[in-house]
Amino acid sequence: MNRPNASGSSIESEQLRPIAAAAKAREPMNVLIVGVGGQGVIMVSKALASLAQSKGFEVKQSEVHGMAKRGGTVFSHVRFGPQVWSPTIPKGEADILVALEWAEGLRWLAYLKPDTGIFICDTKRIVPPFACLNRRPGSPLRYSRETPAEVKAHVAEGYAIDATHMAEELGNERVGNVVLIGALSTALDFSAEDWEKSLAQFVPKKTIAVNLDAFRLGRNWIAEARTNPAKIESPATKTAAPAHVPYSVRLEITAEWCKSCDICVKLCPERCLRLNEERIAELAQPEKCTGCRLCELLCPDFAIKVHLDSPKQGVAA
Ligand code: SF4
Ligand code: SF4
Question: What pLDDT is stored for residue 310 in this prediction?
Answer without folding.
Answer: 55
